[in-house]
Structure formats: C-alpha cells, structure tokens
Design a protein that fits this description.
- With 89 residues, this protein is an all-alpha fold.
- It has one domain (19-88).
- 88% of the residues lie in helices and 0% in strands.
- It has two helices and no strands.
- Helix 1 (3-42) runs antiparallel to helix 2 (51-88).
- The longest helix is centred in the N-terminal third of the chain and has 40 residues, at 3-42.
- The radius of gyration is 19 Å and the shape is elongated.
- The model has no long low-confidence stretch (mean pLDDT 92).
Length: 89
Amino acid sequence: MTPQQVLDTGQQGLMLMLMVSAPILLVVLLVGLLISVFQAATQLNEATLTFVPKIVAVIATLALAGPWMLQTLVEYLQRMLLGIPGVVG
C-alpha cells in the first residue's frame, strides 16, 4: 500500500465521519442557539433548560437520519473489508 493510498483512505474516513455526524451536530447547534435566544429574551438563566430539548432533538434526528447514517457506515465498512485482499496480496 502506497503512502498516497493511506492518505486517501484516511481522508475518505474523515469525510465520512463529518457527513454522518453533521445532521446531529447541526440540529443540536440550532436548538442550543434557539434556547439561548429564548433565555436571553426572558432572562431565564436555568442551566438545565437546554438538556431536555437537545436530547429530544437528537432522538428525533436519529429517528429521521439514522437509517441513512447506518447505511452509509455499512457501505464504507464493506468497501474497506472488500479492499483488504487488494492491499495485502
């Protein structure tokens, strides 16, 4: 395996990680921003107020995007496992 192949494989893995984690991270970011604006507008500074909406948002996002995330990860793993004989042999 050449150094370029190693770098390409690593780059593909990092891009896949970003793609799969992006929906959850974006939803949590938006929910946190909305709650922060709400807290600033109402002067309600309760630290625990952010946890429940974020958890609900993550569960909803996993319910919607979970099958796509799982399918993407399984396809990547299959490509990597099927590529092992070409790298070793």
